[in-house]
């Protein structure tokens, strides 16, 4: 799987004279000159012009930023405060930023076959993982790749995230510019450390985000349980990010998860994130270090997972990326959530198809896939009714059961009356005499 693409239009490499690294130690801000081998920037004679375009535009015009580093994931026992494993998960990452687009490539340092790629090309998000490592149980030897596509910059996992890809996404991919608030001014995002596509527990949490000085990255963030974001069961299962359950067993699992979520107290802080270190150069701030702590509602005082990210190098180039999407080098099973569509009777969760090596990625308007969606919405299995719909149906049945005898008696009396009025006058007089 080829990552990224060749650069073009690179300028000569020189150091920024005013580059520096800014660290937030929780007590204040300390700054010092950032030099040496850890940070290189390519600028050249076009620097002032590019900087002017950045100030006039979105701040990233004509610049390619590449960040390399590692992050460690420590899972802890909240009761004892000790790590549950002798060695933390160590993941190496490469982030490429270009305008509003970005690419995150992560690899397990101890197992190079365990990798993941997360890409946002300005419109859609692509997540690629090896099928044998993340889905199949037991894990067979296979070169099959699993890919999930959605039309949003928000990371919504559809399979388990063994590499904690949400950490570099929080640091470099999540932008306050791309999040929207609801009618109450609250930001609600699916929690990316869950399998959000199949877990109602991922919802019902408020995100309090403090942006960086330039608004491009997240400086601090709290993820807080907010019961005002809960919906009734029918609407909970109709959330567009959630796969609608297609079986009674799946529906029962959703109801169980929903019940667990409703037991989480309002105001519980599930996650604390902050950027601990910034790389500052020519009025640009780029995260250099970050930390995430995840908490359980059962042990709200001690984190159950701590993730620390540190960049090792940051390179800034002038030019452009020819292709930020990875190429399809092997058979790739795709779950395409851009094709999700719902009617009152049926819900099409995603389009499923396989790409062969060398094929390009399909658009969100592929005629074959659109035909599959329309066929399913007309002839596919009907969706399972939610509690509200079942209650409405039950009320209708009860009304019909109660009204049916009354209607039957009234109809019978009406038939008798009609028969009586149709008889000849003489016959009616005879009946009246007797």
**Based on CA inertia axes, which overall geometry fits?**
globular
Order of helices and strands: EEEEHEEEEEHEHEEHHEEEEEEEEHHH
Q: First CA to last CA: what distance?
A: 100 Å
Number of strands: 20
In total, the number of domains comes to 2
Sheet bearing the most strands, described? 16 strands, mixed
Report the total helices.
8
Tell me the β content.
25-35%
- Averaged pLDDT: 81
| pLDDT < 50 stretches | 2-20, 22-61, 386-399, 428-434
Fraction of residues in H or I helices: 10-25%
What is the C-alpha radius of gyration, as a whole number of Å?
30 Å
* SSE-based structural type: alpha+beta
What tags apply to this protein structure?
434 residues, alpha+beta, 2 domains, 16-stranded mixed sheet, two-stranded antiparallel sheet, 20 strands, 23% helix, globular, disordered N terminus
Notes on the structure:
The structure is a single chain. A hairpin with a 6-residue loop joins strand 11 and strand 12 (218-225). The chain has helices at 47-56, 131-134, 166-173, 233-236, 248-262, 367-379, 387-422, 425-433; strands spanning 7-8, 20-24, 29-33, 39-41, 63-75, 89-98, 101-108, 111-120, 125-130, 145-150, 205-211, 218-225, 269-281, 284-296, 299-318, 320-321, 332-336, 341-342, 347-348, 351-355. Helix content is 23%, strand content 33%. The chain starts with 6 loop residues before the first strand and ends with a helix. The chain has two domains: 7-379, no CATH class; 387-433. Mean pLDDT is 81; it is low at 2-20, 22-61, 386-399 and 428-434. The chain has a 16-stranded mixed beta sheet that branches. Strands 1-16 form a two-stranded antiparallel ribbon. It is globular, with a radius of gyration of 30 Å. With 434 residues, the chain is an alpha+beta fold.
């Amino acid at each position: 799987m080829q990552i990224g693409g060749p650069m073009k239009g690179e300028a000569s490499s020189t150091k920024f004279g005013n580059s520096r690294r800014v660290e937030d130690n929780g007590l204040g801000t300390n700054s010092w000159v950032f030099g040496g081998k850890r940070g290189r920037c390519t600028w050249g004679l076009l620097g002032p012009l590019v900087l002017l375009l950045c100030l006039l535009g979105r701040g990233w015009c004509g610049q390619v930023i590449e960040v390399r580093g590692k992050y460690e994931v420590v899972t802890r026992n909240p009761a004892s405060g000790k790590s549950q494993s002798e060695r933390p998960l160590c993941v190496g990452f490469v982030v490429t930023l270009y305008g509003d687009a970005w690419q995150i490539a992560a690899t397990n340092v101890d197992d190079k076959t365990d990798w993941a790629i997360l890409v946002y090309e300005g419109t859609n998000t692509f997540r690629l993982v090896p099928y044998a490592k993340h889905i199949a149980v037991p894990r067979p030897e296979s070169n099959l790749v699993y890919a999930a596509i959605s039309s949003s910059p928000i990371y919504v996992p559809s399979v388990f995230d063994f590499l904690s890809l949400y950490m570099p996404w929080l640091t470099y991919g999540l932008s306050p510019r791309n999040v929207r608030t609801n009618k109450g001014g609250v930001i609600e995002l699916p929690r990316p450390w869950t399998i959000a596509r199949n877990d109602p527990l991922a919802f019902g949490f408020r995100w309090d985000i403090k942006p960086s000085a330039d608004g491009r990255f997240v400086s601090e963030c709290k993820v807080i349980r907010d019961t005002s974001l809960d919906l009734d069961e029918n609407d909970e299962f109709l959330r567009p990010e959630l796969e609608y359950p297609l079986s009674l067993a799946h529906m029962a699992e959703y109801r169980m998860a929903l019940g667990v979520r409703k037991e989480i107290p309002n105001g519980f802080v599930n996650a604390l994130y902050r950027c601990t270190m910034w790389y500052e150069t020519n009025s640009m701030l780029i995260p250099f270090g970050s930390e995430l702590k995840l908490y359980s509602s059962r042990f709200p005082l001690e984190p159950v997972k701590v993730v620390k990210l540190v960049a090792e190098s940051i390179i800034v180039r002038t030019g452009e990326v020819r292709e930020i999407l990875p190429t399809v080098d092997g058979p790739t099973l795709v779950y395409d959530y851009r094709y999700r569509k719902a009617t009152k009777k049926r819900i099409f969760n995603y389009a499923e198809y396989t790409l062969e090596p060398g094929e390009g990625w399909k658009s969100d308007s592929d005629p074959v896939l659109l035909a599959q969606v329309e066929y399913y919405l007309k002839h596919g299995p009907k969706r399972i009714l939610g509690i509200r719909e079942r209650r409405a149906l039950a009320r209708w049945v009860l009304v019909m059961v109660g009204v049916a005898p009354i209607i039957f008696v009234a109809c019978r009396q009406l038939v008798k009356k009609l028969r009586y009025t149709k008889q000849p006058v003489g016959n009616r007089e005879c009946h009246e005499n007797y």
